[in-house]
Amino acid sequence: MNAPADHDDDGVLEEGEEIFLEEGDIIEEIPVDEEELPDADDGEGSDPEVYDEADDSLHTFTGHTGELYTVACSPTDPTLVATGGGDDKGFLWSIGQGDWAFELQGHTDSISSLAFSSDGQLVGSGSFDGLVKVWDISTRTLKWTLEGPSGGIEWIRWHPKGHLVLAGSEDSTAWMWNADKGAYLNMFAGHGGTVTCGDFTPDGKTICTGSDDATMRIWNPRSGDVIHIVRESSQANFVGCLRAH
Fold first, then answer.
1. Which of 188, 212, 225, 227 could form a disulfide with 193 if both were Cys (CB 3.0 to 4.6 A apart)?
2. CA distance 130 to 109
3. Global pTM?
4. Nearest CA among 73, 98, 69 for reference residue 84
């Protein structure tokens, strides 16, 4: 990766220093032809379907009345699946029973994102109403409603080793809360557009976010300070998806 010419002699980047991506830095660029993508159903809601290998059948779960925007599977229970959609509803489904276990109620706008904690004990729902709700799987109850962002929630992620939940917003910020205490921990500000994607690194010590402003930012989760800014030299595209490894 090419660094700016004014970096330190020892090659270590200063905190907040921008890293520019050139064509030679890109390992592989995968084009997406939108014409090859399947057409969305017009007007009609779509219920989730699950294939059951045991009896070679396809189960359709009914409950949603609008388009589905997000699906999440429990990392610890293969029978639990959460869905959310444009009807402002979320459901936790029991695949073995072919019915929903409980409804994630309380959002006043489309549910845009769902994610289970790494231990499977909690599931978080993010909505365009700007709220993140945390649900207790064992008791089937709402544990916390987390507030802060002034725009809709684009995505949510969990810390790989604990109950810290991270969310990106349309208001150009990302937020982090302690889901055991329902407490705000940090807000990450600096992007110039919607924070479209983000995640913790596997060790949980760093946060990466991507944005409509065509940058990826690397953050210190404890201090909330930006460590590095990665910017495409052409600045012609937005960052829509990323995954930390």
1. 212
2. 9
3. 0.74
4. 69
Q: Which has more confidence, 28 or 146?
A: 146
The C-alpha angle with vertex 101 and arms to 199 and 82, in degrees rounded to 5, equals 20
**Percentage of residues in the chain having pLDDT higher than 70:** 69
Separation between Cα atoms, residue 144 and residue 104, nearest integer Å? 12
Question: 201-205 — which CB contacts under 8 Å span 24+ positions?
Answer: 201/244, 202/160, 202/244, 202/245, 203/160, 204/159, 204/160, 204/161, 204/162, 204/164
Cβ–Cβ < 8 Å for 59, 69: no
Exposure of 79 in the CB half-sphere (CA atoms within 13 A): 9
Closest CA to 66 of 95, 90, 100: 90
Residue 30 CA neighbour count, 13 Å, CB half = 1
Which tokens hold the place of 13? Answer: 């980047």
Alpha carbon distance, N-terminus to C-terminus of the chain? 17
Residue 213: is its pLDDT beyond 80?
A: yes
Q: Which residue has the tokens 């807000």?
A: 187
Q: Which residues contact 115 (CB under 8 A, 6 or more apart)?
A: 72, 123, 124, 156, 157, 158, 165
Which residue type, as a one-letter code, is found at position 187? M
